[in-house]
Amino acid sequence: xxxxxxxxxxxxxxxxxxxxxxxxxxxxxxxxxxxxxxxxxxxxxxxxxxxxxxxxxxxxxxxxxxxxxxxxxxxxxxxxxxxxxxxxxxxxxxxxxxxxxxxxxxxxxxxxxxxxxxxxxxxxxxxxxxxxxxxxxxxxxxxxxxxxxxxxxxxxxxxxxxxxxxxxxxxxxxxxxxxxxxxxxxxxxxxxxxxxxxxxxxxxxxxxxxxxxxxxxxxxxxxxxxxxxxxxxxxxxxxxxxxxxxxxxxxxxxxxxxxxxxxxxxxxxxxxxxxxxxxxxxxxxxxxxxxxxxx
Length: 295
Ligand code: AMP
What we know:
With about 300 residues, this protein is an alpha/beta fold. It contains 8 helices and 15 strands.
């Protein structure tokens, strides 16, 4: 082999085994939000083509492998990858021996039991002895009352009662509109799911670090930075309105008798909060996104 010539030979790429390998869904509704999370975490994922099987990240020694969402738990359990992202429902259904490192705040849905509108069954408890169609047999068996007869179906689970295959179904629901369209009534949620980062029981330290970075992005996405001006006389009222455990910062303004209030607020509270703050005398209200939240 020719010796490397100083200054003329490009640095060798890092050996693949030193990089953190993360399995992510290759298609379906979890793929795009997962790539977006890698992006927002600052990893600099190379944009994967539709047929890519793997892609590197520009800013970190991380390599993403695109696999079926259903296969992620096994790849992680077997140590084929160092960590992975998939739905919590899939992780539980697979019963894989993995550790959940972070909830990722997207892909939210619920595993629900449902019956035809006309059914006399009113609760999950009432399903005792029923025939239930599902593509989640392990979770259905674990979360429904015994005895239960399961009919294993893949896709179009909602049709099973209409076809006379089952008395009830267990399936993933987000808005509930598919259930209604198919003449079904929910009996309740068996499991709340969202995308999660998982790792083997003894994760690599780099995987734990990545989980921390993801958590800081997820928390930041759910938060806004609020700034407003208020007469000092109304300060107490404003502080009582601003939720959250973190005390707001109160800063003096050049105008006598006026102060600025800065605070982190939950994004979900903003629609209710802004009119209340205005009514309490706040002015120059600014709301800005937060990129990261740590500590
Ligand atoms: P897909 O590959 O598109 O079938 O996505 C499968 C995963 O997306 C599920 O295992 C869930 O974790 C998640 N998900 C989020 N919302 C829904 C929904 N309404 N129906 C099915 N899966 C959902």
